[in-house]
Design a protein that fits this description.
mainly beta
Length: 108
C-alpha cells in the first residue's frame, strides 16, 4: 500500500518526463518494464520508485481511504475513483513500432 499524493505508472518510453520529475528512474527505451513512481509518498518507510516486469498491475482505492482518488492519462481529463474502485493496467498484445535515426543506443 502506498500513501501519498499519487503515483505514476509508465513504460520506459511513455510518461518518462512525468516519472523523472517525480524522482523516478531513467530507463533505456529498449528495456521492457513498467515504472511505478510515487508522488510525495508519506508511507512510514516511504515508497520508492520501482521497476517491474510488464505484466498486469492492479491499483485499488482502499475502502478505508479518507478521500476518493482520481486518474488521468498523459495529463488529460481526470476521472474520479470511489472507494473500492480498481484500475487494471495490462500490456497490449500489439507492439508499437517507432522510428529511430540510427539505433536506440545512439538516439537515447
Amino acid at each position: 500500500m502506498s500513501r501519498g499524493d499519487g503515483m505514476i505508472v509508465s513504460t520506459a518510453t511513455g510518461s518518462t518526463g512525468y516519472s523523472i520529475s517525480a524522482g523516478g528512474p531513467n530507463v533505456h527505451p529498449s528495456f521492457e518494464a513498467v515504472l511505478i513512481t510515487p508522488i510525495s509518498s508519506n508511507a512510514p518507510l516511504g515508497f520508492r520508485p520501482s521497476i517491474v516486469p510488464p505484466y498486469s498491475i492492479e491499483l485499488v482505492i482502499p475502502e478505508e481511504s479518507r478521500t476518493p482518488g482520481y486518474v488521468s492519462f498523459d495529463g488529460n481529463e481526470s476521472y474520479k475513483l470511489h472507494h473500492g474502485d480498481r484500475i487494471l493496467i495490462n500490456r497490449s498484445i500489439y507492439r508499437l513500432v517507432t522510428v529511430n535515426q540510427d539505433s536506440t543506443s545512439v538516439d537515447w
